[in-house]
């Protein structure tokens, strides 16, 4: 047996020439509970070098650890998240593109029962509209859009929102369709897409807390003051005051000096000067926003990877629902089966017949190439049926409940089967208060005149010895 004197060993160590034996040694000193426990590259390499030697020992250990699924699923990733920044290009004018979002639930709620704040921000001027509301339903969002946005400021060309159920509901789609407003959805689990309004929410929280009472129960009363001062203060990104860009004039604040003089220019002169002023501040704001975006993009993209994956690559998907310290951080492995966009893919679990809609993840291939762990977007898709979490059912049309047991007639069952077959979206375990406590194996609630939603609930089950079984 060939021996070699190692730097980290007092006595010579054996030379390992057999490839299979090398693999087994690495597995023993990295994977097993007794000798390895999945420590990192430095610790594992040092431990093996004290006992064995072969020329490619460092490289082999590094590749093994890079492709170790338990390590990839559970280790913290301290590198920058992948993907280059692609800022939203500011529109040509105000009120062409606005962003909308719910903020909350806020604890404690206000004395009037408000738990959420709905915010609407103009992307160019940075002008913000806020309103304290009791819930975050689609009906509430639609009322705010109509009464607090459109009837006061006019109809925007497009509205950017996240993919919350309050914004994806049919009522919102119908309102936007009737008003001719383009609805743009932010990428799921990527809050930076709607980052402008997220930053305002963070600013608003601190200011409201500073003004509110000790119990924070009057925060809804302080909200208009915070919003007004935000709109009448210069914005660093646009280098302009949102109020000025929105109304074409500087605001007169409560304690500002006023000399009592009123100027009465001719209508033609006023319109000309107003248009000239608005054009100037709009162009300046847009140029300043683009300049700030370029600077931030350079800083953000520095030392950040921009991976591109191929069909049949093996991937691990980030688990966004971790609640406990020992929950795995990455699920898988999955195989990429379809590419939807530049960074969006459909992947399939290699052990289960379940597809997931994902982007930005870690890949492993047969050659153990060096890839990286990345975050992802997960939206379960199985058998062409998308499973979402919906709020408690509040039907806008008539609502019927069917109780399925041994007395149910055949025509009723055929009718329900036909409706279920034609349905495209299913909501499971909604805990609907409209469902009665009548004993039935399955209780089905269907919404008439919509034909897209069927509710299946197993509730109020009889005892196993009951004749209903």
UniProtKB/TrEMBL annotation:
A Pfam family of this chain: Integrase_H2C2
One GO-annotated biological process of the protein: DNA integration
Domain of life of the organism encoding this protein: Eukaryota
Q: Where is the Integrase catalytic domain?
A: 86-250
- Gene3D superfamilies the record matches: 1.10.340.70, Ribonuclease H-like superfamily/Ribonuclease H
Query: Annotated Gene Ontology MF terms?
Result: nucleic acid binding
> Which InterPro entries does its entry note?
Integrase_cat-core, Integrase_H2C2, Retrovirus_Pol_polyprotein, RNaseH-like_sf, RNaseH_sf
Q: Which PANTHER family match?
A: INTEGRASE CATALYTIC DOMAIN-CONTAINING PROTEIN (PTHR37984:SF15), PROTEIN CBG26694 (PTHR37984)
Q: What is this protein identified as? A: Integrase catalytic domain-containing protein
Q: Which organism is it from?
A: Rotaria socialis
